[in-house]
Amino acid sequence: NAGVTQTPKFQVLKTGQSMTLQCAQDMNHEYMSWYRQDPGMGLRLIHYSVGAGITDQGEVPNGYNVSRSTTEDFPLRLLSAAPSQTSVYFCASSSIAGGQDTQYFGPGTRLTVL
Amino acid sequence: AQSVTQPDIHITVSEGASLELRCNYSYGATPYLFWYVQSPGQGLQLLLKYFSGDTLVQGIKGFEAEFKRSQSSFNLRKPSVHWSDAAEYFCAVVPDNDYKLSFGAGTTVTVRA
């Protein structure tokens, strides 16, 4: 099993550009989520999904879109990148809904917005 | 506001010495409690978790944590650290009336020879 994979590992964008961060898992997990990690702030939940076709907002959803058309994939879209979105992004999955179960994290995407 | 607090931003410890990382939460009832570790350039890995029962829980890599309801704390300990324990450690909480995971700001551990 590859677990949770994320692409790309690194990305540099200019302000106003859009892009999609990819996340895939091969563990047949229903619950998937996106976090951003900023120094001194830990990880903050952006969006999450409890199954295909179902998504909801987390703590810091503004400027981000998600969709979940399959169990395996949960892409995160930046609509119009801003310097405040410079961060490290982690995707996670678990077998049952919510953080009560062990979260399996991907290796992260380091995004810089100029 | 409900929160998770890790009071120590950075701890330096000698190899072979003991380590204790503090975590306090401000949720009313007993939440689900976790410790995750992040090695440099890596994603997070679960060290241990507490849901109920015995308040001393054992995890991977020789770590343990103790839940103290009266102090709203869930401190992580290791009796003897190894150089490979240098990493960032995150305490995380899920309230019992919710299912979204909230993380503390993290504690960076440096191990000196």
Structural overview:
The complex is a heterodimer of chains A (114) and B (113). Chain A contains no helices and 11 strands. With 114 residues, chain A is mainly β. In chain A, strands 2, 4, 5, 6, 9, 10 and 11 form a 7-stranded mixed beta sheet that branches. A 4-stranded antiparallel beta sheet of chain A has the order 1-3-8-7, with no helix packed on it. Chain A starts with a strand and ends with a strand. With 113 residues, chain B is mainly β. Chain B contains no helices and 12 strands. In chain B, the strands form 3 sheets. In chain B, strands 2, 5, 6, 10, 11 and 12 form a 6-stranded mixed beta sheet that branches. Chain B has a 4-stranded antiparallel beta sheet with strand order 3-9-8-7, with no helix packed on it. In chain B, strand 7 and strand 8 form a beta hairpin. The termini of chain B are far apart. The relative contact order of chain B is 0.34. The A-B interface holds A 4, 33, 35, 40-45, 48, 58-59, 90, 92, 97-100, 102-103, 105-108 and B 4, 9, 32, 34, 36, 41-46, 49, 51, 90, 92, 94, 98-106.
Intertermini distance of chain A: 36 Å
Rg of chain A to the nearest angstrom?
13 Å
The most extensive interface between chains reads: A-B, 24 and 25 residues
Averaged pLDDT of chain A, please?
93
Oligomer: heterodimer
Would you report the number of β strands of chain B? 12
Low-confidence stretches of chain B: none
Largest sheet of chain A: 7 strands, mixed
Shape of chain A: globular
- Indicate the radius of gyration of chain B in whole angstroms: 13 Å
Question: How many H/I helices of chain B?
Answer: 0
Number of helices of chain A: 0
Structural class of chain B: mainly beta
Q: Percent of residues of chain B in beta strands?
A: over 45%
Q: Looking at the structure, what is the overall shape of chain B?
A: globular
Helix content of chain A: under 10%
Q: Work out the helicity level of chain B.
A: under 10%
The termini of chain B sit apart by 41 Å
Secondary structure: number of strands of chain A: 11
